[in-house]
């Protein structure tokens, strides 16, 4: 099938301006962008300081008002009463916060945090569903100079306790529960607090469901009481002035290390990239409503559902739950009801909607509002692209772009930008301006032949790249900067190749870390959790393609006593409960298969290729 060429007229950064930016040297480019996209109280004296490699420092000497650079700039304009957040709960509840209302709540919570004793530079742990209070908590932490740590609510109390012990957060913001789960988030937090070796100062609880929860006197405080109490919410003249390289937030990410790893992002470089890349990728104007389906706990949610769009003054739609085959009708309802014009999602979600639309007559619907789609987490298969063009909207030339980025990079680095020279369809994948990328062989020499796979690396730093691993600078150097001896490369951990048109094609992770939607989990972590269960002797996990879900994570398990397989359902239940208790539902494999032994290679390594072939046959794919 020959695809029609997609023609798109850009609304913000023009094709000509894009070409100008691409031609600039890296330091000239980021100096130009920093002056254009950030408001400086004290101008920076140096763009890039390379004296302490790999501890690169950007915009040395610069100071900025973080409040003014995110929400404050809009309060003196017509955007003051514009909708910043349009939120929809799983239970049908709706809320709309204007930029003024959002700023007011951030101010109240920031004041309360200061009254509670939050100090500049310390961690605030956030563990809650995608509700407006999560965004408010992130921005309030930034306002007082604290470092927010958002952790996905699907993780277990054990996993939560490990992260608390690692970052030693004295303050937690959570909710009583959630409407799209059966467990109480407050109970999970309480169990985690029982497992750590220190006492926290305060746990702020958002009332989401109204369920009964245990509240420890003096430590546990209701969010609504705090922000409505003038003794807590009326601190004046909060100092929002920050040095360019002060930390903004940490995010825990999956690696093959057994210890928790949290990447640190700094203020100026991250905010610059969040704002610039949001405008470049999604081309948002004043009339747009932007929906990013990613959970706010992931980097995609941080950058493209909080900091980037809000700093641009955009209107965001946030849904508390997630879209799947079962509730795919909601997908079209939300697009129509809230007039979503720009969508950022992932192939797995779109495939679920495609499958539902093909099997349910009442879903014979198309979106009338969508004008642009971004897709991250994985490349969009050709059949899914064709479906999106023909069945998702009433257009046949809808601009669809693939976007690649990582938790460590702070946002998208490679994409096909609609409306620029060379853009035809979603197969265009080029580095964004200022991103210097190469594909190299195992010895670090660049791959020069098209269609030849190698390791994807950054050949130079850029402002949004994470500054360090919290409490583990040595691991930061080893994992990211010392993979290729004799070369100062940043190793992304992903494989890729160039085609004849110089487009980049991602081939997957090189370190057995599974990318799904907008998050990551280590295959080693999943194997480790299952192997630690008392009935299990050995475990191996593999990833396989799936025609409906996009991928499947399959675990092959060898039991200590083979007779346990006679109680297959009971044993499966016990293993699943163990995984949920130790790591949370997010670590559950899609399928667990029992086997008498695991196939090995001559050097005694697990033969994952053979396991993958066996899994494909067993799943009937």
Explain what this protein looks like in three dimensions.
The chain has 18 helices and 31 strands. The strands form seven sheets. It has a nine-stranded mixed beta sheet, with helices on both faces. An eight-stranded mixed beta sheet has the order 11-10-9-7-8-13-14-24, sandwiched between helices. It has a four-stranded antiparallel beta sheet with strand order 22-23-25-26. Helix 13 links the parallel strand 17 (342-345) and strand 18. It is globular, with a radius of gyration of 24 Å. 32% of the residues lie in helices and 25% in strands. It is an alpha/beta fold and 621 residues long. Helix 4 crosses helix 5.
In short:
With 621 residues, the protein is α/β, with parallel strands linked by helices. The protein has 18 helices and 31 strands.
Residue ranges: pLDDT <50 for 5 or more in a row? none
* Secondary structure category: alpha/beta
Helix content: 25-40%
Task: Quickly count the helices.
Answer: 18
Report the β-strand fraction as a percent range. Answer: 15-25%
Count of beta strands = 31
| Terminal-residue CA separation | 24 Å
Q: Which sequence of strands runs across the widest sheet?
A: 6-5-16-15-17-18-19-20-21
Radius of gyration computed on alpha carbons? 24 Å
Global outline: globular
Mean pLDDT: 89
């Amino acid at each position: 099938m020959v695809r029609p060429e997609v023609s798109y007229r850009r609304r913000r950064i023009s094709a000509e301006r894009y070409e100008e930016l691409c031609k600039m040297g890296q330091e000239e480019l980021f100096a130009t962008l920093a002056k254009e996209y950030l408001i400086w109280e004290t101008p920076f004296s140096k763009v890039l300081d390379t004296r302490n490699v790999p501890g690169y420092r950007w915009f040395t000497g610069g100071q900025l008002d973080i409040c003014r650079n995110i929400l404050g700039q809009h309060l003196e304009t017509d955007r003051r009463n514009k909708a910043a957040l349009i939120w929809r709960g799983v239970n049908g509840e709706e809320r709309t916060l204007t930029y003024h209302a959002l700023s007011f709540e951030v101010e109240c919570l920031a004041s309360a945090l200061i009254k509670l004793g939050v100090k500049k530079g310390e961690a605030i742990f956030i563990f809650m569903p995608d509700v407006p209070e999560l965004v408010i908590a992130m921005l309030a932490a930034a306002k007082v100079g604290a470092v927010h740590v958002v952790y996905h609510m699907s993780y277990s109390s054990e996993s939560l306790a490990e992260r608390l012990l690692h970052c030693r957060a004295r303050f937690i913001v959570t909710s009583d529960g959630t409407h799209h789960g059966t467990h109480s988030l407050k109970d999970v937090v309480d169990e985690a607090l029982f497992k750590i070796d220190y006492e926290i100062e305060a746990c702020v609880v958002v009332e989401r469901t109204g369920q009964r929860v245990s509240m420890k006197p003096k430590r546990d405080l209701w969010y609504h009481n705090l922000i409505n109490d003038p003794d807590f919410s009326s601190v004046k003249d909060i100092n929002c002035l920050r040095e360019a390289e002060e930390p903004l937030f940490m995010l825990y990410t999956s690696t093959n290390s057994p210890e928790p790893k949290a990447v640190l992002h700094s203020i100026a470089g991250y905010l610059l990239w969040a704002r610039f890349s949001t405008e470049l990728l999604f081309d948002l104007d004043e009339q747009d409503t932007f929906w990013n389906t990613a959970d706010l706990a992931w980097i995609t949610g941080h950058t493209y559902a909080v900091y980037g769009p809000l700093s641009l003054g955009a209107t965001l739609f946030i849904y508390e739950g997630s879209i799947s085959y079962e509730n795919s009708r909601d997908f079209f309802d939300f697009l129509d009801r809230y007039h979503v014009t720009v969508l950022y999602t992932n192939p797995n979600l779109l495939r679920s909607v495609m499958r539902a639309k093909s099997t349910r007559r009442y879903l014979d619907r198309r979106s009338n509002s969508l004008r642009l789609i971004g897709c991250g987490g994985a490349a969009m298969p050709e059949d899914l692209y064709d479906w999106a063009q023909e069945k998702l909207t009433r257009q046949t030339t809808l601009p669809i772009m693939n976007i690649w980025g990582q938790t460590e990079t702070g946002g998208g680095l490679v994409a096909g930008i609609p409306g620029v020279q060379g853009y035809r369809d979603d197969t265009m994948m080029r580095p964004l301006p200022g991103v210097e990328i190469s594909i190299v062989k195992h010895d670090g020499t660049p791959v020069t032949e098209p269609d030849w796979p190698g390791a994807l690396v950054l050949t130079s730093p850029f402002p949004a790249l994470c500054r360090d691993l919290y409490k583990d600078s040595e691991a930061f150097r080893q994992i990211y900067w010392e993979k290729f001896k004799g070369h100062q490369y940043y190793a992304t951990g992903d494989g890729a190749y160039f085609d004849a048109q110089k487009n980049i094609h991602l081939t997957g992770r090189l370190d057995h870390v599974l990318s799904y939607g907008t998050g990551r989990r280590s295959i080693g972590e999943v194997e480790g959790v299952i192997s630690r269960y008392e009935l299990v002797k050995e475990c191996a996990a593999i990833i396989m393609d799936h025609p409906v879900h996009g991928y499947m994570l399959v675990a092959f398990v060898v039991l200590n006593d083979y007779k346990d397989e006679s109680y297959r359902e009971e044993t499966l239940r016990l293993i699943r409960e163990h995984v949920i208790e130790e790591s949370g539902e997010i670590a559950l494999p899609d399928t667990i298969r029992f086997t008498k032994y695991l196939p090995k290679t001559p050097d005694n390594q697990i033969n994952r290729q053979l396991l993958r072939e066996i899994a494909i046959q067993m799943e009937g794919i």
